[in-house]
Write a structure and sequence with these properties.
351 residues; alpha/beta; TIM Barrel
C-alpha cells in the first residue's frame, strides 16, 4: 500500500485513471479506504444542504442555473426559510449547514452576513458557503460574520477548457485560483473540486487536477461526474472542446470512484463527499461505494421540496422529491449498513 501512495507521480495518477481492469483496481480501493480510516476515521459527517437561490449571473455551458436558461422558474429563499432549514438540520443531528446558490448578486453582502450571524447565534452549527466567485471584500465580510468554510470548485485546471465552459464576467480581474488563495488568507476552511468527464477533459488534465488538490492543501474536495443537461450548450452538443477520443475522460461511475480514491491518497486529511451526482448515476449503491473508496461526507438536502425541484443544475437528481426527514433516516441506515457511523459535531478538517 505504501508503495502505491509514495509513487503518485503525474504519470502514475494518469495510469490509474486509465486502468479499467476491476481486479487491478482492488489495491487502489483498499489503499484509499485504509488511508481514509487512518486519517479521518469511520465517521461519516452529514452536512445539511440549503439551496438558497437558483438565480445566477453566469453563463456556464454545463449548468442549468445559467442566466441563459429561460425555462427555469427562479426563486430566492427568505431568511426565515433558511433559518427553519438550519434548525431542522440541527434537530437531525447535522453539525454543518451548507448555504449554496448560483452567483446571485441579489443575495446582498449584508444580508448573507446577517443570516450567518443569526445561525451562529442560535445554533451550534458550522456554516459553509458556496455562492460562487464573489468579491474578496464580500468573502472577508462573511468570514467576519462567522462563516467557517467556503466551497468554490475550480472544475478544471486547463485554462483553455475552463474559458470555454465558464466564460468570465466582464472586467473580472481575478480567477478561481486567486480566490482560493484569498479564502485561505481569510482563515476559511477551503473547499474545491472538479467535474469528471466534461467534454474536452483529458486524462492528463484530470491527473493534474488531482495533484492540484495537494498543492492547494484543500480542506474539502468535491468531485463528481459531469451529467449533461439538455437545456445547456454542452448538453445540446454545442461548442464542444473536442479532444482525441482516446484521451477524453468518460463521465462514468467507475471513473468517479477512481478520482475519489486518488484524491484521498494525495490529500489524506481532507473531507471528501460522496456526492449527489454519484448517487444519481447509481441510486442503489453509489453513495456507499464512494464512502468505501475514500469519501467521508454526505450532504443530505434540507431545502424545501418546492424549491429543491427548481435547483436543477442537471436533470434527474437523486432524492429530488424526498423530504428532508425521509432523506436523513435513509442515509443513517445506509451508513450503518456499511459498518460506518454518523459523525458528531461540525466535523472540520483534523490538522
Amino acid at each position: 500500500m505504501h508503495n502505491l501512495i509514495d509513487n503518485l507521480t503525474l504519470d502514475a495518477v494518469e495510469q490509474w485513471l486509465r486502468q479499467d481492469d476491476r481486479d487491478a483496481l482492488e489495491p487502489l480501493w483498499a489503499a484509499a479506504d485504509a488511508v481514509r480510516r487512518e486519517h479521518v476515521g469511520d465517521a461519516v459527517h452529514l452536512r445539511g444542504l440549503i439551496e438558497i437561490s437558483n438565480y445566477c449571473v453566469r453563463q456556464c455551458a454545463y449548468c442549468g442555473l445559467a442566466v441563459t436558461n429561460p425555462y427555469l422558474e427562479r426563486y430566492r429563499m427568505s431568511d426565515e426559510e433558511v433559518l427553519d432549514c438550519a434548525r431542522q438540520a440541527h434537530r437531525f443531528g447535522y453539525g454543518t449547514v451548507v448555504i449554496q446558490g448560483g452567483e446571485d448578486y441579489g443575495l446582498e453582502t449584508d444580508r448573507i452576513a446577517g443570516l450567518i450571524r443569526k445561525i451562529k447565534s442560535e445554533l451550534p452549527l458550522a456554516v459553509t458557503l458556496s455562492l460562487g466567485e464573489r468579491e474578496p471584500k464580500e468573502l472577508a465580510a462573511w468570514r467576519t460574520a462567522g462563516a467557517d468554510r467556503y466551497l468554490l470548485r475550480f472544475e478544471t485546471s486547463d485554462p483553455e477548457l475552463y474559458a470555454r465552459i465558464h466564460p468570465p464576467r466582464p472586467r473580472q480581474t481575478y480567477d478561481r485560483f486567486d480566490l482560493l488563495r484569498r479564502l485561505r488568507e481569510l482563515g476559511y476552511e477551503v473547499g474545491s473540486g472538479v467535474m469528471i468527464g466534461i467534454p474536452g477533459q483529458t486524462y492528463r488534465t484530470l491527473a493534474r487536477d488531482i495533484l492540484k488538490f495537494e498543492v492547494f492543501d484543500l480542506d474539502m474536495i468535491g468531485v463528481g461526474p459531469y451529467i449533461p443537461n439538455p437545456l445547456t450548450p454542452l448538453g445540446r452538443g454545442e461548442d464542444v472542446f473536442a479532444v482525441d477520443p482516446d484521451d477524453q475522460v468518460p463521465n462514468e461511475e467507475q471513473m468517479t470512484y477512481k478520482v475519489i480514491a486518488l484524491t484521498r491518497l494525495v490529500c489524506p486529511q481532507a473531507n471528501i463527499p460522496s456526492t449527489t451526482a454519484l448517487a444519481t448515476i447509481n441510486r442503489d449503491a453509489g453513495r456507499e461505494l464512494g464512502l468505501s473508496r475514500g469519501a467521508n461526507v454526505v450532504m443530505p438536502n434540507v431545502t424545501p421540496v418546492k424549491y429543491r425541484t427548481r435547483y436543477e443544475i442537471y436533470p434527474g437528481k437523486a432524492c429530488l422529491n424526498e423530504t428532508a426527514q425521509a432523506c436523513q433516516g435513509c442515509l443513517r441506515g445506509r451508513i450503518h449498513a456499511i459498518g460506518r457511523f454518523v459523525g458528531q459535531g461540525p466535523g472540520g478538517r483534523l490538522r
